[in-house]
## 1
Amino acid sequence: MLTTHSLIFQYPYGNPFAFPDLQCKAGESLLILGESGSGKTTLLHLLSGILTPQSGDLEVDGTKINQLKNTERDVFRGKQMGMVFQKHFFMEGLSVFENLKAAQKLSGSLSDISHLEQLMEKLGISHLSKKKPYKLSQGEQQRFSIARALANKPSYLLADEPTSSLDDRNCEKFIELIRLPLTEKPVSWIIATHDQRLKKYFSNIYEL
C-alpha cells in the first residue's frame, strides 16, 4: 500500500505545494486530476522518490521513502516503481528490445528475457523488437513506454499525462491497456493528468 501524510514541497523562490493525503492499495488504480501548475508532476516525483518533501511522510509497502538516503531511494525506486513519462526519453541508438534489457540492467535487476518477451507479446509490440524508438508510431511508443516501465516488475506504475495528446479512440485504447494483466502480480497504476475523460474509468480520484 502507498500512503502519504501532510506532504509539502517547495521549489526555490516558488510557492509551497500542500498535497492531500493519498492512499493506494496493492493492485488499485489512482487518478490524480489537476490543471497545469497544480503540482501533478511534482506529486508524482515525490511519490517515486525523485523529489523529497520539506515535510510530511510517504510510505510504500512499509518503507518511509522520505527517510531513505538518496542512494537508497534510487534503489527502492528502481525495484518498486515504474515511470511512464510525458516525454519518453528512450535510448534512440538502441532497438526496442535493447532498451528493455537496458532498463533491467540500469536498475540492478537480474536479466529476465522471458519476462520482457511476454510483456511485448501482451502489449502487441513483439514485431517491433528490432526497430529503433524513433521509427515507432505514437501509439507504438506508448506501448513500448509501458513495457519499459514494467521491465523490472514494479509494484507501482506512475504515469504523467499519458493521454493528453490522444484522441477519444486512442484514449480508450490506453485504458484497455492498463486493465490488461500484464504481469504475474497486480500493479497499481497512479496517473496524474488534466484529462477529464479519465474520471469515468476510476473510482479512486484525488483532485488538486
Note: The CA atoms of residues 103 and 118 lie 16 Å apart.
## 2
Amino acid sequence: MTIRTLLYLFSIAFFMVSCKADPLSDMKKTELMSHGFPIAMYVPEGAIINKTDLGVMQDLTIKAGDNYYVQIFSSDLLTLDKKVVLNEKLVEAKSHRFFSKIISEEEDGFIFEKNVDGILNYDFRYIKIQGDKEYVFQTGLVGNYSEEDVKAMYASVK
C-alpha cells in the first residue's frame, strides 16, 4: 500500500468520523417565537411544528422523520431555582418503572435509558428558565429512539 493510498483512506475515515461527531450538521437554528415560545433551537430541515394549549401549560412538538421528535412543555415558574426543577425531573425519570440508568448528566439536563422487556429506548430532559416561564424539553411521547438519536435531539435544544 502506498503512502498516497494510506492518506486517502485516512482522509475518508476522518471525514466520516467528523461528520458523525456533529449532530447539528443537518439542522438549522430556528426561532420559535412565531409559535409563542421565545426560544431558539436547532431543528432538522422540513420539521413539522405543532402547538397545543393544555390550559396550565403549552405543548410544542417538533417532528422530523422517525429519528427526531422533541416535545417542549412551557408553564409558569414555581421556582427560580433551575436545580430544583431539574432534580424533580430526575426523580420523576428514575421512578418510572422502565428506567434503567442515567447515560449523561449536565447542569441543565440529562439523558437516560429505559429498558422495556429487553428493548432499550432513550429519552432526555433539558430545562430552560426564561422570564416567568420554565421550558422542559424531552423526546416526543410516542416513539423508540436510539442513544444516538437522543444525543442529537439533546444537542439541538442546548
Note: The longest helix spans residues 3-21.
## 3
Amino acid sequence: MEHYFTNNESLKSEFRTIDYRYKEKAFSFISDNGVFSKNKIDYGSKLLVETFLEEHEEVSSVLDVGCGYGFIGIVLAKVLQIETSLLDVNRRAIHLAKKNGKENDVAIKVLESNLYENVSGFYDVIITNPPIRAGKEVVLKILLGAKDHLTKKGTLWFVVRKDQGAKSIEKILKETYEIEIMKKDKGFFVFKAKKN
C-alpha cells in the first residue's frame, strides 16, 4: 500500500472535490490519490479543528504539520483571518494544499519539509493530525520537535485515536509538556500541550 507520507511520482491522479462548512463559512478542497483521507474530511482532523476553534485562542501564527491537501491550515486561516503555514513531505499534498489555498481564497505559506528540517521561526500554535502509519518514532519526532518552534506561550494541538496509542503518547509527552485532553469523541482524543 502506498502511504501518504511518501512521494510516489508514478501514482495516477484522480482528482475529487470535498466540501466542508464551518458555521457560515463554506470550503471546497481538491483531493487526489496518494494523500491522507482522500475521499472525505478525516473525522480526527475535523474534531481537532473544531475543538481548537471552540477554544478560540488569540493567535497570530499557526503551523500545520503534515498538512495533506491543506484542510486544517486552510480552515484556520479563513476562520481566524490569519496567514497560516503548512508543511508536508509529500509533494502531491503540497501541490494540492497550494491549489486549495487559492480555491478558498486564503493566505497560506506551503513548505516541503521532512519533519521540521525546513522550518525557521516560531509559532503560537503548531497543530497536527500526525501520520500514525508512519510509526510511533515519526509521530513522537513531530510532537516532541514542536517545542523548538513554539513561541514562549505557544501551544501544540494534536489528535490521536485511543486505539492508536493516545494514552502512551500522552505519558511520553508529559515529560516535556504540560498536557491536557480537550475533547474525547468516537475514540479520538484531542490534546493541547504547553511547554513546561
Note: The chain has one domain: 43-195.
